[in-house]
Amino acid sequence: MKIDLTDTTSSKINKALVQGRRAIGTPAVGMVLTLVIVTDEENAYDALKAANEASREHPSRTLVVIKRVSRTPRARAQARLDAEVRVGAEAGTGETVILRLYGEVSEHAQSVVLPLLLPDAPVVVWWPVSAPLDPAKDPLGALAQRRVTDTYASEHPVQELSARAEAYTPGDTDLSWTRITPWRSMLAAALDQVVCEVTSVEVEGEEFNPSVELLAMWLADRLKVPVIRALSAGPGLTAVRMETSCGPIVLDRADGSLANLSIHGQPDRAVALKRRDTAELIAEELRRLDPDDTYASALRFGVDRLGDESRATAPSGGRGGAAGRKTASSDASPDAGSPDGGSAAPAAATDPAPAPAPAPAKKAATKKAAAK
Question: HSE-up of 201 (CA within 13 Å, CB side)?
Answer without folding.
Answer: 24
